[in-house]
Amino acid sequence: MLHWLVAGIGDISTKRVIPAIQAEPRSVLHALLTRHPEKAAAYRDVKVYTTIEDVLADPIINAVYIGLPVSLHAPTTHAALRAGKHVLCEKPVAMNYQQALGMVEAANAAGLRFGVSYYRRMYPKLRRAAELLTQGVIGRPVLAEANCHSWFDQTDGPRNWFLNPQLSGGGPLYDIASHRMDAFNFLFGNPARVCGQISNVVHPRAVEDSATLMIEYDQGTRAVVDVRWHSKVIRDDFRIIGTDGAIDLSPLNSPDLVYPGGHEMLPAPANLHYPCVENFVSAVLEGAPLASSGASAIVTDWLTEQVLLSNPQGRFRYH
């Protein structure tokens, strides 16, 4: 059995991760870590801690889910690994690539599992798209496109920390582009190079409100990711263009999958994090491969860092 500590009681933890742990038959929700114990009032049979030192001293805990702001991913992961706990961390892995690489190296040195909750890797339709690519349904894939646009201007409330680069690392590049980059990495493998631009087009804030990047993969496929927090028209487009046709997964969060000669409906699980939790438990207890390991996830941190390095002033430019 895995006896879990959930570090951070935000929206993702309460709506997805805690219910997933409670539903997973080999898991027990043992403890919660929060600076605000009143948030844990609904979990009456669960221990509540306010300091990382106290909770990691609990010998029953053998797995930690980290749902804290990005700035706390690295220090909390290292503390958990030093205490001998396996770690499932929220995305992106860290504030920068060196931090992320250090987390992976620490887990390897400790002989512990380190997973990252890029749950879209377990979408049935994304996995089916990978099968179709292998089968050559669209010939050679040459271009992939992902657009994710929404309006985000929450200056107050539980998600306002996303607007503080000291906590979040950045805006939509960190928050929503990371999911699309990881999905493309899953489909196309190793990225050879990346370029991109970030800017503030509508919102004058400390993090960018838009980012556009182009990735070129080893086998030649180019992927374009465009993410925006200043669009009042919601978009969630995702498609792959090949020499002989296209695979359309738009909207990415819908069950629709369209390709030459076929249209399938492959819905994701009702709880998007459940497959991550289930897979992580299988990895720890049975040695199953992680669907989203630290090693695969930090590729996205590398891509993000390359874009930031090419835009030293771009994040704060407002027109």
Task: Give a verbal description of the structure.
- The structure is a single chain.
- With 319 residues, this protein is α/β, with parallel strands linked by helices.
- It has 2 domains: 2-119 and 276-281, 3-Layer(aba) Sandwich (Rossmann fold), CATH 3.40.50; 120-268 and 297-316, Dihydrodipicolinate Reductase, domain 2 (2-Layer Sandwich), CATH 3.30.360.10.
- Helices cover 32% and strands 27% of the residues.
- It has 10 helices and 14 strands.
- It has helices at 11-23, 52-56, 73-82, 97-110, 124-135, 165-168, 172-175, 177-188, 274-286, 294-309; strands at 2-7, 27-33, 47-49, 63-66, 86-89, 114-116, 141-151, 191-199, 210-217, 222-228, 230-242, 245-248, 256-259, 262-265.
- β11 (230-242) and β12 (245-248) form a beta hairpin.
- The chain is globular, with a radius of gyration of 20 Å.
- It starts with a strand and ends in a 10-residue tail after the last helix.
- The model is unreliable at 315-319 (pLDDT under 50).
